[in-house]
Design a protein that fits this description.
Blueprint lengths: L2 H8 L12 H22 L1 H9 L3 H28 L8 H22 L9 H31 L6 H30 L5 H26 L22 H8 L1 H18 L3 H11 L5 H28 L1 H25 L23 H22 L1 H16 L4 H16 L2 H11 L15 H26 L6 H16 L1
Helix pairs in contact: 2-6, 2-7, 2-8, 3-4, 4-6, 4-16, 4-17, 5-6, 5-8, 6-15, 6-16, 7-8, 7-12, 7-15, 10-15, 10-16, 10-18, 11-18, 12-13, 12-14, 13-14, 13-18, 15-19
Length: about 500
């Protein structure tokens, strides 16, 4: 290696095997996570497109989402293995490879799925066309998702910086989700229905442009750290990576086992928060779906402040494990209170400045329902953001632990094993929602803006919006009892890896 190249990577190193990165690169690389969530958002409203233009009934449309997530899970181990077998160079690392492959596949296939399918002749051609390109779409999604796992490992292992990874990524993703919910609600009102081809055409364009910009910025930000010096345990001896390593990791990496339990239960709850559930809560129970966009923005901003303080203070001082425990207990309490508020008070009195309530009345002051739900949503949302945002740096720690345990840096395999198990469980979310609606009489068509209110609809929405999240948080609390990567343990891990690199 030349002196110039050596000086280029040594400037990011600290004593004790710690390496860091300028904070602006952490901000920039979070564009990859933003892009992943934007493309995931397309699939969260996909059931309306399937129901309206691909010709699938409610149960079948929900089952399709489940099957595709299972397919997504199946592709994870294959792609992860290929990524870790890829021999990095200074010019092309594993993270940049994943960003390019994921970005290109997602852009092209999402265009074909949501801009071409509805223009084809009705009949068998539409579902066949849609299914083929959806299968390729999820391969692209796997590549882009892996880029986050691989990139977080080589970006920094500084215990003071890894919590920042979660703060920056979550703030950006949550703000973008709130903005996109406003966009979806506005488009639904503009075109008169969620099941509108024009809605999907316009929404796709917005998602694709923003996601592509995020991927390009992430590529630029990760480039100087996406090199072998920060992603191998030895510069001389390359470990023999085999597909059987998956079984070894799953069997002996206890921290990863606990993270799988934590993430899978949380993601199951998250995938059940479909656009149909939001529509029932705000469009039917509260009586004004347009209000959902403003409500999401108001509560997200305050919740993000709480999350940033929580992850920054708790994560940096007491460690990531303690942050997860505190966040999970907060979710359990706040979700229980939120369910009581929706059941015991009048949702149609929900209102914000600039909107009308469910009775068509202009804003004239904050009602008791609005104030209480706002407080619970903000506090509960802050706690929930802590639990979800702490996952990326925890998985980065798990990758370092695996490298110290086995002598192999295999972030692609560890990350995809994590996401594979996560997706196997969480893939049933959309199907569960479809079954829930079907049991109360919506077997052929999802509830829409003109659907009359019923207590059964509210009960189903509360179960899938709050109930499963509460259960998932309880599972987190149990899992953390067996997660032993404390700050002290991680110091040992990083020193072990540093010794391996010096041999």
């Amino acid at each position: 290696m030349g002196n110039q190249a050596k000086a280029g990577y040594e400037k990011y190193q600290k004593p004790g095997g710690i390496h860091y990165v300028p904070v602006w690169r952490i901000f920039g690389f979070s564009g990859a996570n933003m892009a992943v969530n934007l493309y995931m958002g397309l699939t969260m409203i996909m059931s309306y497109y399937l129901n309206g233009y691909v010709g699938m009934a409610v149960i079948l449309a929900s089952s399709f989402s489940t099957i595709m997530r299972l397919w997504d899970g199946v592709t994870d181990p294959l792609v992860g293995f290929l990524v870790d077998r890829f021999r990095e160079t200074e010019k092309m690392g594993k993270t940049r490879l994943c960003l390019i492959a994921g970005g290109v596949l997602l852009f092209i296939n999402s265009f074909l799925m949501f801009n071409v399918t509805d223009r084809l002749p009705e009949g068998a051609l539409r579902p066949v066309f849609f299914i083929i390109f959806t299968l390729i779409y999820y391969i692209g999604y796997t590549f882009l998702n892996i880029s986050n796992h691989v990139g977080n490992v080589c970006l920094t292992n500084d215990p003071k910086q890894r919590p920042i990874l979660s703060i920056v990524g979550t703030v950006l993703v949550r703000i973008m989700r709130a903005v996109m919910q406003i966009v979806v609600a506005a488009l639904a009102v503009k075109y008169g229905s969620m099941a509108s081809a024009q809605l999907f055409h316009e929404y796709w364009l917005i998602v694709a442009l923003i996601a592509t910009a995020g991927i390009v910025i992430a590529y630029i930000s990760i480039a100087p750290k996406d090199i072998p010096e920060f992603s191998e345990t030895s510069a001389e001896k390359k470990p023999d990576i085999k597909f059987s390593d998956y079984l070894d990791v799953l069997r002996y990496n206890r921290p990863l086992q606990m993270m799988i339990v934590t993430r899978a239960t949380d993601m199951l709850a998250n995938t059940c928060k479909t656009s149909a559930i939001l529509l029932v809560l705000y469009g039917i129970a509260a009586g004004n779906y347009k209000l959902s966009g403003g409500w999401t923005m108001y509560t997200t901003i305050v919740g993000l402040i709480m999350m940033a303080l929580g992850v920054g203070a708790i994560g940096s001082r007491f460690g990531l494990k303690k942050a997860m425990q505190i966040g999970s207990w907060g979710v359990v309490v706040m979700d229980f209170v939120a369910i009581l508020i929706w059941l015991l008070m009048d949702p149609k009195t929900l209102n914000l400045p600039g909107y009308t309530n469910g009775y068509g009345e202009a804003f004239s002051g904050f009602t008791a329902f609005t104030i209480l739900l706002f407080l619970v949503t903000v506090v509960g949302g802050g706690f929930q953001m802590i639990t979800s945002s702490i996952i990326p740096p925890m998985i980065a720690d798990v990758n370092d632990y695996e490298a110290s345990r086995s002598g192999k840096y295999i972030p692609g395999m560890v990350g995809t094993l994590f996401s594979f198990m996560d997706k196997m469980i969480s893939s049933f979310g959309p199907l569960l929602v479809g079954v829930g609606f079907a049991t109360i009489g919506f077997a052929d068509k999802f509830p829409d803006l003109n659907t009359p209110y019923s207590f059964k609809l509210l009960a189903v929405a509360l179960l899938f919006y709050y109930g499963l999240e509460l259960i998932g948080a309880a599972c987190n609390i149990v899992a953390m009892k067996f997660y032993d990567l404390t700050p002290e343990k991680m110091k040992e891990v990083e020193m072990t890896i540093d010794e391996m690199r010096r041999e």
